[in-house]
Task: inverse folding
């Protein structure tokens, strides 16, 4: 079950790169995920505040016309990093191997980035839905899904 949760937090990181680490930070801060050592710093109040502000900024920036595609190399690598790190936290909390968590999270982030892009693009093109509305729905899926994952871990 831990690897499924690790994949899914990575997947949601593929939808919104900063959502996964922000939600993970909140989960550690609230005691839902228990981390030891330097990994536990993600749950510190400064980390929670900074990651939350960055995640909110990303939700806004995603709607701007000049935002690059999430499947471009730079945004994709960033999503792989944030998804992998968040998945490591999931695995660390469950006393699983961190490297396996990172790999599963990276795969989840890649899947989320490409699936999210394709689904959003196809909904807009095929049904004439407004991109803004589809993007907000995707925000809700990413944030809600990520919180669901970390809240069920404790």
Result:
């Amino acid at each position: 079950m831990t690897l499924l949760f690790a994949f899914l937090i990575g997947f949601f990181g593929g939808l919104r790169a900063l959502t996964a680490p922000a939600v993970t930070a909140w989960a550690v801060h609230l005691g839902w995920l228990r981390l030891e050592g330097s990994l536990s710093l993600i749950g510190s109040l400064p980390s929670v505040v900074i990651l939350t502000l960055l995640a909110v900024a990303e939700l806004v920036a995603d709607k701007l016309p000049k935002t690059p595609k999430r499947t471009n190399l730079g945004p994709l690598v960033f999503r792989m990093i944030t998804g992998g790190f968040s998945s490591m936290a999931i695995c660390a909390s469950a006393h699983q191997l961190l490297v396996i968590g990172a790999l599963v999270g990276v795969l989840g982030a890649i899947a989320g980035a490409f699936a999210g892009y394709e689904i959003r693009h196809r909904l807009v093109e095929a049904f004439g839905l407004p991109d803004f509305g589809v993007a907000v729905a995707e925000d809700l899926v990413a944030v809600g899904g990520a919180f669901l994952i970390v809240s069920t871990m404790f």
